[in-house]
Specification:
CATH architecture of the domain at 2-240: Alpha-Beta Barrel
Number of strands: 17
Radius of gyration: 21 Å
CATH superfamily of the domain at 2-240: Metal-dependent hydrolases
Oligomer: single chain
Distance between the termini: 13 Å
Number of helices: 14
Helix content: 25-40%
Strand order of the largest sheet: 3-4-5-2-1-11-12-15
CATH topology of the domain at 2-240: TIM Barrel
Length: 403
């Protein structure tokens, strides 16, 4: 069976996260998006863990309504690198808390605890507890592994072969990561890292997974590519839409080349803000290949734009949270999911304003333009008014059922 999974989110108990990130709300919105499995996030946080345990649990998976949750947590090491830990069962959460609690001053105050441990030390503990561990949003310039290290080996040391996956992050895709030779044997995950259950945040990136049934062990087999289980599709942003794709000032967002960044000693000449090296340029520095070299096991990557963003463009409304956008979105997903609408529903059967349907069709045909983001500012998506304008993406999007 194929399921859609977003394996990295945060609860209301992490910093800068919406109070609406509770299990019922997450489950409801995941179902409307078309997501079957969601990571719990923050499972080391006592209050969140207590909430999770209230729901039925079978083989390490909890069910809330029609949505399944897998135990996991993101932690920060002593170098500020973030790691995603997937946990097989309740007892292992307690084991992790016991092992990591003495190494953190924030395990009881923040859903994403800061640990006074190296990446390899965290890997030791996680692997001993039969967990899966890999770097979160690997290329982001603040807390990604490649912001601080030139290789996985430098971070994880003797445990590097036990690292089965990396998370790509919003500013990178498979074509970026597969220019780096050491990643050829790793499974790529594309997750949302959502801080809000809104339709343009939750599952803005996700994975399609081939498994036998919904259990932690089946998901683990898919990530480890055992027994015919595997990731069959990565889905997510155009990398240019990510807020760290280009090298840019983190205060005024002026974009620069790496040479200019060096010339200005990392400080923006316009506002004296800190210039952060973008994901695209960081990959160029790390790359072993001028073009991506995809191993045979690598699934396709499908670029997706949240439906609310497409509607806001069609209606000429700046915010996807505007009442007119949310009304149109809610009407469209009645009796179907957002993923179905974006990729395979016959548009002639949808009841919506013609310009909204035209925008969805333009997305499917790749008639979009992305103005790259950087420095902490998301890229901007536009749909040209006239078909003669040159699109950024030329190939028609395929449906999930094509993979």
């Amino acid at each position: 069976m194929k399921v859609n999974a977003d394996l990295h989110i945060h609860s209301m108990y992490s910093k800068a996260v919406s109070r609406d990130m509770n299990l019922q709300q997450i489950a409801r919105e995941a179902s409307r998006k078309g997501i079957n499995i969601v990571g719990t996030g923050d499972c080391l946080f006592p209050k969140w863990f207590d909430e999770i345990k209230k729901y039925p649990n079978n083989e390490g998976v909890f069910r809330v309504g029609q949505t399944y949750f897998v135990l996991n947590v993101e932690v920060e090491d002593s170098q500020r690198v973030h790691h995603l830990i997937l946990v097989p069962e309740i007892s292992k959460v307690e084991e992790l808390r016991e092992a990591l609690g003495s190494k953190s001053n924030t395990v009881n105050t923040d859903g994403r605890p800061k640990l006074i441990m190296s990446g390899s030390e965290i890997a030791d503990v996680a692997i001993e507890a039969d967990c899966l561990l890999g770097p979160s949003h690997s290329f982001t310039p603040w807390t990604g592994i490649y912001a601080h290290y030139d290789s996985l080996d430098e971070c994880y040391q003797e445990k590097v072969n036990d690292i089965k996956f990396i998370e790509l992050g919003l500013s990178a895709d498979t074509d970026y990561a597969d220019r780096i030779a050491e990643l050829s044997n790793k499974t790529f995950l594309s997750n949302s890292d959502a801080h809000s259950p809104s339709s343009n945040k939750l599952a803005r990136e996700f994975n399609q997974i081939e498994i036998g049934d919904i259990s932690f062990q089946e998901i683990k087999m898919a990530i480890c590519r055992n027994g015919g289980r595997r990731i069959t599709l990565n889905v997510g942003f155009h990398p240019e839409e990510g807020k760290y794709n280009r090298t840019a000032c983190s205060r005024c967002y002026k974009q620069y080349t790496p040479n200019q960044m060096n010339e200005f000693l990392g400080r923006c000449p316009l506002c004296n803000g800190l210039i952060k090296l973008g994901v695209r340029d960081r990959v160029d520095r790390l790359a072993d290949y001028p073009m991506p070299v995809h191993p045979d096991h690598r699934p396709p990557y499908l670029h997706l734009i949240p439906l609310a963003e497409i509607i806001s463009i069609a209606l000429g409304v700046k915010s996807p949270y505007a009442s007119s956008v949310q009304k149109s979105w809610s009407e469209l997903v009645q009796g179907r999911t957002e993923i179905e609408i974006l990729l395979k529903t016959d548009l002639s059967k949808l009841d919506a304003e013609p310009k909204v349907l035209e925008a969805i069709e333009a997305f499917r045909l790749g008639r979009i333009v992305v103005i790259p983001g950087g420095g902490g500012k998301y890229g901007e998506i536009s749909i040209p008014s006239f078909p003669s304008e040159k699109p950024l993406i030329k190939q028609q999007q395929k449906s999930l059922i094509d993979f």
